Amino acid sequence: MSRPPLALSPEVAKALADRKPVVALETTIVSHGMPWPDNLDTALAVEDVVRRAGAVPAAIAVIGGKLRVGLDRAALEGLARAKDVLKLSSADLAYGVMSGQTGATTVAATMIVAKLAGIQVFATGGIGGVHRGAETSFDISTDLTELARTAVVVVAAGAKALLDVPKTLEFLETHGVPVVCYRSDEFPAFWSRSSGLPAPIRLDTPDDVARFVRARRELGLSAGVLVANPIPTADEIPASEIRPAIEAAIADAVREGIAGKAVTPYLLGAILKKTGGKSLTANIALIKNNARLAAEIAVALAATP
Ligand code: PSU
Ligand code: MN
């Protein structure tokens, strides 16, 4: 394989060369997942959390056809303000590059780029999953299939209750993706700590997660690892409170015929409106919480690689 055309920021390049802890960050949450200006404020705050926990943040996006790893403020602001940025996942990442366009990367595409760059740990808010009604729509996020083949540790607050969470866990199990619930006996449901589904694996320290990742590497296992980190208690929206907003948002999406890539951004926007902004406040809290844990895991992995 020829060398991948990555444009590393000087800070990320140095950290990787020195084997220092680095945390990859996705950018679809900036372009399609949150409104302006909360999206930029959150992206900057998340970078700060990663730094304070002793790691270097590496936000990933395609900018003018360049696969950038480590974005400065101007690049993040460009993605946060723009209305015509592509949402690039595994299938179209290369299209964004060859056509010289600008696109934000989903969890799946960010995993691909992180792996190419040699970054082992990645923080996001929530992963895509199996959508409700997937048995007829076939709508299953590429995030799941990428987790099945790309050995990166993804820290997320579980899967949103707007998805079919039991089917999402079944899919991950079928494809050999371990789901590690952090300090919890239950798989978390993004805005809520509880999904009612038991933790497939529970681990309680960043060191244990690092040891688990190393044990997988020694076995030559090539799938990713999903670390499911529950939203802090003080920030959660109880399942009973968020459920009506989710149901109404899904009904709206069906009525308006929303399909494909537009589904997740549409539902997030509709739920934000229906909760009067509460879903966004919780989203910001949980992504910072995930960034901190991802940095701690990256630090633990760097200590004994
Ligand atoms: N969940 C969120 N916010 C987001 C996303 C998911 O709470 O911004 C984004 C992520 O980038 C994720 C993508 O990878 O949506 C999944 O999209 P889809 O369901 O179309 O695969
Ligand atoms: Mn989809």
Keywords for this structure?
305 residues; 48% helix; 11-stranded mixed β-sheet; globular; binds manganese (II) ion; binds pseudouridine-5'-monophosphate; 13 helices; alpha/beta
Low-confidence segments, given as residue ranges, are: none
What overall geometry do the principal axes of the alpha carbons give? globular
User: From N to C, what is the helix and strand string?
Assistant: EHEHHEEHEHEHEHHEHEEHEHHH
Tally of extended strands?
Answer: 11
Q: What's the story with the biggest beta sheet?
A: 11 strands, mixed
The distinct bound ligands, ions and cofactors come out as: pseudouridine-5'-monophosphate, manganese (II) ion
Gap between N and C termini, in Å? 25 Å
Give the structural class. alpha/beta
Q: What is the count of helical runs? A: 13
What does this structure look like?
This protein is an alpha/beta fold. The chain is 48% helix and 14% strand. The protein has 13 helices and eleven strands. It has helices at residues 10-17, 28-33, 38-52, 73-81, 93-98, 107-117, 134-137, 142-149, 165-174, 206-218, 239-256, 263-274, 278-303; strands at 6-8, 22-25, 56-63, 66-69, 86-88, 103-105, 121-123, 153-156, 179-182, 201-203, 225-228. Strands 1, 2, 3, 4, 5, 6, 7, 8, 9, 10 and 11 form an eleven-stranded mixed beta sheet that branches. The longest helix is centred in the last third of the chain and has 26 residues, at 278-303. It is globular and about 50 Å long. It starts with 5 loop residues before the first strand and ends with a helix. The mean pLDDT is 96. The structure holds pseudouridine-5'-monophosphate and manganese (II) ion (MN). The site of manganese (II) ion has 3 residues, from loops.
